[in-house]
Specification:
The complex is a heterodimer of chains A (251) and B (612).
Chain A lengths: L4 E10 L2 E11 L4 E5 L6 H9 L6 E6 L2 E2 L4 H5 L2 E4 L11 H11 L4 H14 L15 H13 L5 E5 L7 H16 L3 E5 L3 H7 L2 E6 L2 E7 H5 L4 H9 L15
Parallel strand pairs in A: 3-8, 3-9, 6-7, 7-8
Antiparallel strand pairs in A: 1-2, 1-4, 4-5, 9-10
Chain B lengths: L1 H15 L2 H25 L3 H21 L19 H12 L3 H10 L1 H6 L4 H32 L3 H19 L1 H10 L2 H4 L3 H9 L4 H11 L2 H31 L19 H15 L1 H19 L13 H12 L3 H4 L5 H5 L4 H31 L4 H26 L21 H13 L2 H13 L2 H43 L21 H13 L1 H17 L17 H34 L1
Helix pairs in contact in B: 1-4, 2-5, 2-24, 3-7, 3-11, 4-13, 5-7, 7-12, 7-13, 8-15, 12-13, 14-15, 14-19, 15-16, 16-19, 16-20, 16-21, 19-20, 19-23, 20-21, 20-22, 20-23, 22-23, 24-26, 25-26
Classes of the chains: A alpha/beta (251), B mainly alpha (612).
Chain lengths: 251, 612
């Protein structure tokens, strides 16, 4: 069966720094795939290259077997993306933004309007009818970003830190929505720092450290009978016992 | 604290100066130094003139940051808003950082002209000048900072943005149309009979002239005036600092609020992808204060530019108001994609929308600019034109509207200037980035798109065939449509092919990674060797002189039968040499631009072939 998303030897170098060093991953269709790693490990860079936002120096990325860089149009139509920290058309309201993107995706006016309304309601953004995106809070920006990723009904979602800064109630809504999406045959790839969340949601996980894949596979295989957090700390080689607070901060 | 901030700024500068920026800095510094030396020369000629030149320096300092994108913001007050620092101390510290760089040094050289001027007035005047010169530099720098801050706070409302555009445009027009003042000066025979007493008084009463006044008073032994002038400068500096510190607090503690006009916000009335983008864009044009400011700047610039010559009773510029609005609006809109920051990712993940994005933006720009320009052109031609002006103005208007719509798309994709992300801006429309080079280039390119239509109109006038004259309008419409279509297509193809590189350019903001020579820019060019880099920079800085003042302007003056010669070489010659010489200057300018473009391209290609 073709993988929903396949990274094949992706590499990226910024000046002298190798950000991503031949990352290969295979996301099976219908899986909920978690990507974890320390800050600066190359998660965002890998995901950007996987969805066509950053041109890789080496390697390939395929969405349902379609090469993202050889056939961008074919590949990107099948995937919904939530990037981390990028701008949006800031001077539109949430509803305007979603309708606009729907129209841009070729949806007819009625469909675009209906989908926008439904997404805004589910994500509880419909109260902010007269707020421009630029005035949204960080959590609201995440939610409207998620809505843009869902709008065209993709079969694969690639989400960079979808739960960052989102309030607990909205987080529950988003989780339920993503679970439903996977149950219906969709695939989700998300990156996160929160081990407990990845453990709860995902059935597959990859640990990325220093631009390389440290471990990848079904969740139970990767954590090998322990908690994901312990296993993660062991994989990235951090020595937690040695960590001390700043000397002047002690009581 | 000043020391820490200065060290911080030096470090930031070191991380953001690439090869070409360093070369630009050197060339800019040399040009500034030439002006400063000119000022010292003036100091040996006449006190009135020196005071007037100092006024120009002050004006330049206040206007410069507006041109270059909000002044130097490498160390921003927002960075310190959480620190427990008194705002007055912070203002003082930030002022300290404002003295790091080439322009303050150049200004110090310029204001040292005071010392030269003080020579003949004796020792006391000399000492006063030694004190006054550095004070004047501090004064111009602090007034420059204040100007940015005032504009930055004023433009947080729509009305404020429009008013700031008016102020901005007026100052620009005064500088650009100073020839009108020169003309008026010639008419009133000032150069032979000297400046009228009122002029001498006015230039000395401006803060920029207080240094001159102090030196002269010291020469006369009028110590009361010396004290008044020097203390006046200090008081003004203190006052400016105080107001500036207040404004800094406002800037870091208030956030511009964006209001959605009632009746909108629910739906976008759009038929397809292109109109959807156009609807998004026209909303952005009216809701984004930076864009409001840029657009109104163009409107006021075109209007005032053509109104100023009315001082000397010349109505002949009025018909061109609309054309000027279009040219200026195109120049200030040429960073269209850059202004939206990284929202380009939406086009990258939405397959095949590049065409709609470009076409929609072109459409929205035309819908914004064309109605105003058409009204100005028709009204201006009725008031200031004659029968033969109609084909000229209408054909050229059509040509530049189309050419502008094409060029804004192409240039904004081909030479994007990274700008602070929209959501991270302080609301200051002056943060439009370092777009000065882009604006100048656009002014030239848009003007060039009018050539075919203008040529046909000229032919019609020369042959005295109204049919041919009116054919020019058709030519203007045709070239306009052609360029909009063609450049737009080039733009969306480039967007589709190089989208990820453009996105990483916007993300990185064009800074160099610490400890590395290579910038982390997506479209990194191969660096030119210093000699070639200096040559290219020289070509780009000086190509305008043969092209415009020595080439196109004299041609226009010959064509309209104007009589003023000023410093236009061609006009001092006799027929049959006048036109060939002006044309030759145009050719020299064009050749300089050609080589300025070709040398880096060739070098780039050769280096790539060697590497590959």
């Amino acid at each position: 069966m073709t993988a929903a998303l396949e990274l094949d030897g992706l590499g990226k170098r910024f000046g002298p720094k190798i950000a991503v060093d031949h990352v290969s991953l295979s996301v099976p269709p219908g899986s909920f795939y978690g990507l974890v790693g320390p800050n600066g490990a190359g998660k965002t860079t890998s995901l950007s290259m996987a969805v066509g936002l950053l041109r890789p120096d080496t390697g390939h990325a395929r969405v349902f077997g379609v090469d993202v860089w050889a056939d961008p149009i074919g590949a990107r139509a099948r995937v919904g993306v939530l990037p981390d920290g990028l701008a949006l058309p800031e001077r539109l309201t949430g509803r305007e933004l979603l309708t606009y993107l729907g129209r841009l995706r070729g949806l007819d006016r009625a469909t675009a309007g209906a989908r926008a309304g439904e997404l805004l309601e589910i994500l509880e953004l419909d109260q902010a009818e007269h707020t421009l995106v630029i005035d949204y809070s960080t959590g609201m920006r995440k939610k409207i970003g998620l809505a843009t990723a869902l709008l065209h009904g993709p079969r694969l979602l690639v989400l960079d830190e979808p739960f960052e800064a989102v309030d607990p109630v909205s987080a529950l809504t988003i989780r339920a929505m993503l679970r439903g999406f996977v149950a219906g045959g969709g695939s989700v790839v998300l990156s996160s720092h929160v081990m407990a969340l990845v453990e709860q949601l995902c059935d597959h996980v990859a640990v990325i450290d220093g631009g390389r894949v440290a471990a990848a596979g079904p969740l139970d295989e990767v954590r090998a009978g322990r908690s994901l957090e312990d296993r993660f700390v062991e994989l990235v080689g951090a020595d937690v016992a040695e960590v001390k607070g700043p000397s002047w901060l002690a009581s | 604290m000043v020391g820490v901030l200065i060290a911080m700024k030096v470090r930031v500068l070191r991380h953001s100066i690439g090869g070409s920026r360093a070369a630009g800095m050197v060339m800019g510094g040399l040009a500034g130094l030439a002006l400063a030396i000119g000022t010292i020369v003036v100091a040996g000629i006449d006190g009135d003139l020196l005071a007037a030149v100092f006024a120009v320096w002050l004006f330049g300092w206040m206007l410069g940051p507006v041109y270059t994108g909000g002044g130097d913001e490498s160390v921003r007050p927002e960075h310190f808003s959480l620190l427990p620092i008194d705002p007055r101390r912070l203002a003082l510290g930030l002022l300290g950082t404002a003295f790091v760089g080439v322009p303050p040094l150049v200004s110090l050289v310029a204001f040292s002209a005071l010392v030269v001027y003080a020579g003949p007035f004796g020792l006391a005047a000399f000492v006063v000048a030694l004190v006054a010169a550095p004070l004047m530099v501090v004064l111009v720098v602090v007034l420059s900072r204040l100007m940015i801050a005032v504009l930055g706070v004023a433009v947080r409302s729509r009305t404020g943005a429009i008013l700031a555009a008016l102020v901005n445009a007026s100052m620009n027009v005064v500088l650009n149309q100073s020839w009108v003042l020169i003309w008026a000066a010639i008419q009133f025979d000032l150069l032979t009979s000297g400046f009228p007493p009122s002029f001498s008084a006015v230039v000395r009463r401006l803060p920029s002239g207080w240094g001159v006044a102090a030196v002269e008073a010291a020469g006369r032994g009028d110590w009361l005036v010396v004290a008044a002038a020097l203390l006046g400068i200090c008081a003004l500096i203190a006052l400016a600092l105080l107001v500036w510190s207040r404004l800094l607090v406002r800037r870091t503690t208030s956030k511009p609020l964006h209001r959605v006009p009632p009746g909108t916000g629910r739906d976008l009335a759009a038929r397809g992808p292109v109109t959807a983008v156009a609807a998004k864009e026209s909303r952005t044009w009216s809701r984004d204060l930076m864009r409001t400011h840029l657009l109104w700047f163009a409107v006021f610039f075109g209007l005032l530019y053509t109104l100023v010559p009315l001082i000397i009773g010349w109505y002949g510029m009025l018909p061109w108001a609309g054309v000027l609005v279009v040219v200026m609006a195109a120049a200030t809109s040429a960073n269209l994609f850059g202004l939206d920051g990284t929202s380009l990712w939406l086009n990258l993940v939405n397959p095949g929308t590049e065409r709609a994005e470009v076409r929609g933006r072109q459409l929205a720009w035309l819908l914004r600019v064309a109605p105003i320009a058409i009204v100005f052109t028709v009204a201006g031609t009725i008031v200031g034109g004659e029968g033969w002006t109609w084909p000229w103005t209408l054909s050229i208007l059509a040509a530049v509207l189309g050419g502008g719509a094409g060029l804004i798309a192409l240039v904004s994709v081909a030479m994007l200037v990274p700008v602070t992300e929209p959501s991270k801006r302080s609301g200051n429309p002056l943060e439009a980035g370092g777009i000065f080079g882009q604006v100048v280039l656009m002014l030239l390119l848009v003007t060039l798109t009018a050539l075919p239509a203008g040529g046909v109109a000229y032919l019609g006038d020369t042959l005295d065939l109204p049919v041919v004259s009116w054919l020019a309008v058709a030519v203007g419409v045709a070239t306009g449509a052609l360029l909009t279509g063609w450049f737009g297509r080039l733009a969306h193809r480039r967007l589709a092919a190089r989208g990820p590189e453009l996105l990483s350019l916007m993300r990185s903001g064009g800074t160099a990674a610490p400890g590395s020579v290579a910038a982390t820019v997506g479209r990194a060019r191969v660096k030119l060797p210093p000699g070639k880099q200096a040559l290219v920079t020289f070509l780009w800085i000086f190509c305008w002189i043969p092209l415009f003042p020595q080439g196109l302007v004299p041609l226009w003056t010959i064509w309209t039968g104007g009589e003023s010669r000023l410093w236009f070489l061609a006009l001092h010659l006799h027929d049959p040499w006048r036109i060939p010489v002006a044309v030759a200057f145009v050719a020299v300018g064009a050749v300089m631009i050609y080589y300025g473009t070709v040398i880096p391209n060739r070098h780039d290609r050769a280096a790539r072939e060697n590497a590959g």
